[in-house]
Specification:
single chain, 8-stranded antiparallel β-sheet, about 35% strand
């Protein structure tokens, strides 16, 4: 991924927080059948290895876990949101008429080496952790024990675990940081007014950072 210095995000804690808050990643593999991409929710363990370890599972019927082998290099793409940016939203455009449209977005790429974990204990523990994390906000969180044991056992047999040791994290938050503060703020305010609050608010934070 091309990352100009203005948009580079390299702080490990920031990148890990981003993954935690945008857990649905795109697992990109290049196995025996060629390129493939699968959309999968991930769990990040920050305490494993220098960059952390990603854990996920796929359906046993999904050929990806047999198409790749332990040790293969893979890429996982995590994305938050994106938004079109009109030149009309930049105050400097109305002064100098030297602006063009662009598209802003926030992404993190996790490069790593994969290990296939086809064992019931690993899968059960991972599913339990994913469930606790994503059910935590529910008024009455669902637990695996809410379903009959034989049903859960059968479901777990139908999935295979995948573990990815992260070797490199690349973050790109493209928020018009290469523009003047007034232009970043103007575009951010326009996005917020239009309901694109995630990118808009991140742009307003980037504008405020220019004043520090």
């Amino acid at each position: 991924m091309y990352v100009p210095p203005h948009f580079d995000v390299s702080r490990l804690e920031t990148l890990c927080d981003f993954i935690d808050n945008n857990a649905l990643g795109v697992l990109v593999t290049h196995g025996k059948s060629g390129l493939d991409a699968n959309h999968i929710p991930f769990e990040l363990n920050r305490t494993q290895g220098p960059h952390g370890v990603l854990h996920c599972h796929v359906a046993r019927n999904n050929p990806v876990w047999q198409d790749i082998a332990s040790g293969d290099e893979v890429l996982v793409v995590f994305r938050a949101a994106d938004a079109y940016i009109s030149p009309q939203w930049y105050p400097s455009k109305h002064d100098f008429h030297k602006q063009v449209p662009t598209w802003n977005y926030l992404v993190v790429h996790a490069h790593g080496r994969v290990t296939i974990r086809d064992d019931e204990r690993y899968v059960r523990g991972m599913v339990a952790r994913l469930t606790r994390t994503h059910e935590a906000s529910q008024p009455v969180p669902w637990k695996m024990t809410d379903a009959p044991k034989d049903f859960i056992d059968a479901m777990l047999k139908a999935i295979v675990g995948i573990e990815i040791e992260i070797t490199r994290l690349v973050g790109k938050f493209k928020l018009s940081q290469n523009k003047e503060e007034r232009d970043i703020r103007g575009a951010g305010e326009n996005l917020v007014e239009r309901g694109d609050t995630y990118v808009g608010e991140r742009m307003l934070e980037a504008a405020a950072a220019k004043l520090v």
